[in-house]
Specification:
Layout: E1 10-15, H1 20-25, H2 27-36, E2 41-46, E3 67-70, E4 92-97, H3 102-108, E5 113-117, H4 141-153, H5 169-176, E6 185-189, H6 201-213, E7 217-220, H7 230-236, H8 247-250, H9 257-264, E8 269-273, H10 276-282, E9 288-292, H11 297-300, E10 307-311, H12 325-336
Parallel strand pairs: 1-2, 1-4, 2-3, 4-5, 6-7, 6-8, 8-9, 9-10
Length: 337
């Protein structure tokens, strides 16, 4: 990456909120920002809620973010613009507003700054000389954020083809101890943030059985919200493993994102819904097959070199149940060939 002439000492990045999936998608943005301005103090402000960068993903952003402000007082409604300046009126050399609402951008423009970039009003509120060229806005959230960096720095910022998250060797060894070695392991993650995004559990069961018949070990990845599914799944697929519920792994550690990333690193492929686990698996470098129905992969698909998405639409439907088991099984076979 070329060196930027503009070298801010302080940078404010304003976001809405950060959940696991979009937090992982934002990691390449943070790395690129730090590559451009290694000496800058970076403040990350989430105005619509919490940020995983202040919680479960804090170790992943050590050295990338210097300060996280959750529930930051940045107005997002027109009626709030006349109240006091946000963030106690603090000044920043560079402000990057990632949100499209113009009210937040106008509020941030009241802070002392040298340069500001924002996607609001097609970039018209950005500082002069930092406004985007005319053209279609990219669909992917990551590319949208990298474009803001380009506008601020005045140099190209390429899109990476993957975003790996390192895990401690101790955790890598602990996860290796709860899965067999020398046999293909296929991860299956049936959960998601909403049931409308879930492929039917019967389909996951049928896929798990196919993997067992092919000499592979189905590894079921259940999060805390899906624990009640474990008994039924064990009965339906006796060959399946549930390592994220193994006391040898989680006792004393808990079920953190880094545990899932480390475990995924031992798997040969992972099949999941549109959920955070897809981004965690991709962060390990493992090939991921992500299933989409009512949601679109264009904005939030995991960043991975090897993997694919399957949509209900390409299968002739619109709901998750419209994705045939055979289509998913074929994609796994292709990845493992």
């Amino acid at each position: 990456m070329r060196t930027a002439e503009f070298q801010p000492r302080t940078v404010l990045v304003h976001v809405g909120l950060d959940l696991i999936g979009d937090g992982l998608l934002k990691m390449p943005f943070l790395r690129a920002l730090r590559d451009l301005w290694p000496q800058a103090r970076v403040t990350w402000a989430a105005s619509q809620g919490r940020s995983v960068f202040a919680g479960v993903l804090a170790p992943a952003v050590a050295g990338l973010i210097d300060e996280v402000i959750e529930q930051a007082d940045v107005p997002t409604r027109w009626g709030d613009l006349l109240r006091s300046r946000p963030l106690d009126g603090r000044g920043f050399d560079l402000i990057i507003d990632t949100q499209r609402g113009p009210a937040a951008t106008l509020a941030l423009k009241r802070l002392p700054h040298r340069r500001l970039v924002s996607p609001a009003v097609r970039g018209a509120l950005s500082s002069w000389g930092c406004r985007p060229a005319k053209g279609k806005r990219p669909a992917a959230m990551l590319r949208q954020m990298l474009d803001l960096l380009e506008q601020a720095a005045g140099v190209p910022v390429p899109t990476p083809d993957q975003s790996l998250i390192p895990v401690p060797e101790e955790l890598r060894a602990a996860t290796a101890a709860v899965v067999p070695q020398g046999v293909p392991l296929v991860g299956l993650a049936p959960g998601a943030g909403g049931r409308h995004k879930c492929w039917p559990q019967d389909s996951f069961v049928a896929l798990a059985r196919r993997q067992a018949e092919a000499g592979r070990v189905p590894v079921i990845l259940l999060g805390p919200a899906e624990l009640e599914w474990q008994t039924a799944l064990q009965e339906q697929v006796p060959q399946a493993l549930f390592p994220l519920q193994d006391p040898r792994l989680i006792d004393g550690r808990g079920l953190t994102p880094f545990v899932t990333i480390a475990l995924a690193g031992h798997l040969h492929a992972v099949v999941c819904n549109d959920a955070g686990v897809g981004h965690l698996a991709a962060a390990s470098g493992t090939p991921v097959v992500v299933l989409y129905g009512p949601t679109s992969p264009k904005k939030f698909a995991p960043l991975t070199r090897r993997g694919c998405v399957i949509t209900a639409q390409e299968c002739g439907g619109s709901a998750m149940a419209d994705i045939p088991v055979a289509v998913v099984a074929d994609r796994i076979n292709a990845l493992l060939a």
